[in-house]
Specification:
Nuclear Transport Factor 2, Chain: A; alpha+beta; 8-stranded mixed beta sheet; 15% helix; disordered N terminus
Length: 660
């Protein structure tokens, strides 16, 4: 198979295979990805000061020249990294100059915590002299490995222990912490390290997400994550530490005064099963030329070579679908690629490898496809293909399990993001819901704010945006093709959000498929199916969520007979620190502040009930900190009959340390 023998997608009105966009889709190269969600520290500084109100753009100060900042960074490079105009990033993002002492302290505390992390990552006994400069003379701390741990899960695969400090405990009723002084900190760290015997590549990371200033001390709350492969198997620890620090004047680093462990969780995989999953990518795909030439190069490589400048091209969001397309009982993979790269169809072989066959099957389209479904939409017993590209959906039938043939291309809003299929009208065939993000033909440079937040008008509201692209419901009419029935069935209600994902499920147990739509920058939708017509009941069902919805999945996680829903959002340590400070949006109403604070909280788990009103169990279930979460899926990982949760997270890694 030749990788250069690829096809562009067919147009909606002919057999030609090159649909053209109707308008310019350029996007300014200087887009600052960090501010897409508005939760990066600089973004919240600007917002809190009113800089981003009603069309005003954040302006870089012009009175500080980048040349004035000549101090080297740790790696010897000039400080500042990225340069905006004549100003370095470090000068723009400097909380000590912007009146944010809490952020300045978070930076300084973070530097001290990084020193502790480096000591732990050495996986060797910590000596007192290495921590003497970290501790105040009055330092004391809890055991960092709480002795009161409770075993919550123990089977052949996993052993999980937890500790949570009783919220009703008062300091007066607690015993004196057993560790004090620099020697105490060293001893506490060594006790923690004892759970990682003969550790290989121990990882340790702190995330400060709360800062409270006092007169002579500061309290921070931070997550601590440590993991390593040990002689006993894999060990992972996640904890919350509450730390009291000294509050020194000037640039003197703060010192630890007290460490309290608020909660702690340790997961152990025994030696005989030292991992849950194995990365088999190379073993399965390496024999295909496209593995080295395309798949291993990474998004940054292709961004430098693409003329496309849409926002989501720069985020790397193509989709994937899995199904048995050739009827051999083995699951195959259809992979959408970046703009200009042909989509791939990998056929699963009996030896476990996969062979790339997109050209032979006629589906190696090159036009920025964003999502795919392998479903039997023509009801002939095999898996057909639906692929979303910018401006429409390609519908191809599976012919004799040997090739796909395009039957129809349905036009939609231009900025299509994802697809979800179900038989909403119970007529025996699958219908398709199409999620869209931006409205119109996309954003050109003149429509993009420096921050990266959509600027399609002064009515854009960061926490409740309502000027996104319209979603579509395509009804399957059999031989007559697919028909857009969005307005006819009531799905035009609240249909101008920035939608990224949707999932069908009969949440009310009445026999038909309802629809949850996860939206960025604001409220989600829950459309209840009432005999083939839909009503948005998100508000009354208490599922509006109002955050950065990027993925959604259903399951009955508590096995009570009512479906529950998990929504992937974004957890931001900076957002949690800043949005809870009294000076942040000081003139805003409490309700508005809560909405913004919600944007930083992270993932959401909503428990279904018989009355149709959902209960938010996110905190209780400890699922909020999914980091920069994208897709998620309920799946029973350890085959114990309970639905577990897998959350895909992360983002593009740049060479500049200031680049998210």
């Amino acid at each position: 198979m030749k990788d250069d023998a690829h096809r562009e997608p067919p147009s909606a009105d002919s057999d030609a295979r090159s649909p053209q966009a109707s308008a310019d889709r350029g996007l300014a190269r200087g887009l600052l990805i960090a501010a897409v969600v508005g939760l990066a520290a600089w973004g919240l500084y600007g917002w809190s000061q009113g800089r981003w109100s009603q069309g005003n753009l954040p302006e870089a100060p012009n009175d500080r020249a980048a040349a004035d900042s000549g101090s080297p960074t740790a790696d010897g490079a000039p400080s500042g990294g990225a340069v905006i105009g004549e100003v370095s990033w470090d000068e723009v993002d400097d909380p000590s100059r912007d009146g944010w002492p809490t952020e300045d302290f978070a930076r300084r505390a973070g530097e001290q915590l990084d020193r502790i992390a480096k000591l732990l990552k050495r996986a060797k006994p910590v000596k007192v002299d290495k921590v003497a400069s970290l501790t105040d003379e009055r330092f004391r701390c809890d055991p960092l490995l709480p002795p009161q741990r409770t075993t919550v899960l123990e089977d052949d695969l996993l052993h999980v222990q937890r500790f949570r400090r009783d919220a009703t405990q008062t300091p007066d009723g607690e015993p004196e912490p057993p560790y004090s002084g620099a020697a105490g900190l060293a001893a506490a760290l060594n006790d923690l390290l004892a759970t990682f015997p003969a550790a290989q590549k121990l990882k340790c990371k702190f995330k400060v997400f709360r800062v409270e200033l006092g007169e002579d001390e500061v309290t921070t709350t931070q997550y601590v994550a440590c993991s390593a492969k040990t002689e006993r198997g894999l060990v992972e620890q996640n904890a919350t530490w509450v730390i009291r620090w000294t509050r020194p004047d000037g640039e003197e680093p703060p010192r630890l005064r007290e460490v309290v462990v608020d909660d702690f969780e340790m997961t152990h995989l025994p030696e005989q099963s030292d991992h849950l999953f194995s990365d088999c990518t190379e073993a399965v795909l390496a024999a295909n030329p496209c593995f080295q030439d395309q798949l291993l190069r990474g998004l940054n490589h292709w961004l430098e070579r693409s003329q496309q400048r849409r926002l989501f091209l720069r985020l790397g969001t193509p989709g994937i679908a899995v199904a048995d397309v050739n009827g051999d009982g083995l699951e195959d993979i259809y992979l959408c690629q970046e703009n200009g790269l042909p989509n791939k169809l990998f056929l699963h072989q009996a030896d476990g490898t996969a062979v790339e066959m997109s050209g032979e099957w006629g589906v190696d389209w090159i036009y920025d496809c964003r999502s795919a479904l392998l479903i039997d939409w023509d009801n002939d017993g095999d898996q057909d293909l639906a692929v979303a590209f910018l401006g429409g959906v390609i519908l191809a039938t599976n012919e004799q399990q040997q090739k796909f043939v395009v039957r129809e291309v349905v036009s939609t809003n231009d900025d299509v993001m994802s697809l979800a299929a179900a038989d909403y009208d119970a007529d025996g065939d699958l219908d398709i819901f199409v999620c869209s993000y931006y409205s119109g033909a996309g954003l050109g440079p003149e429509q993009v704010r420096v921050s990266g937040i959509p600027a399609s008008g002064a009515d854009f509201v960061f926490h409740d945006a309502n000027n996104g692209g319209p979603n579509s419901l395509l009804r399957n009419d059999g031989e007559h093709g697919f028909t857009d029935v969005t307005a006819e069935v009531g799905l035009d209600q609240n249909n101008s959000r920035f939608s990224l994902a949707a999932a069908w499920e009969d949440y009310d147990n009445d026999g038909d498929q309802d629809l949850y739509v996860a939206n960025d920058y604001g409220r989600d939708n829950l459309y209840r199916n009432e005999g083939g017509k839909f009503v948005d009941v998100a508000e009354v069902a208490r599922v509006e969520n109002a955050a950065t919805g990027m993925g959604v999945t259903w399951a009955d996680y508590n096995r009570d007979g009512w479906m529950d829903v998990h929504v992937s959002n974004m957890w931001s340590s900076a957002g949690n620190r800043i949005a809870f400070q009294p000076e942040f949006k000081a003139s805003a109403s409490p309700a508005m502040k809560r909405r913004v604070q919600r944007m930083a909280r992270g993932n959401t788990l909503l428990q279904g009930r018989p009355d149709g009103v959902f209960v938010d169990t996110s905190s209780k279930a400890a699922i909020e900190v999914g980091r920069w979460a994208w897709s998620s899926n309920f799946v029973d990982i350890n085959n114990d009959g309970w639905e577990d949760l897998i959350v895909a997270n992360g983002f593009i890694t740049g060479e500049d340390p200031a680049d998210l």
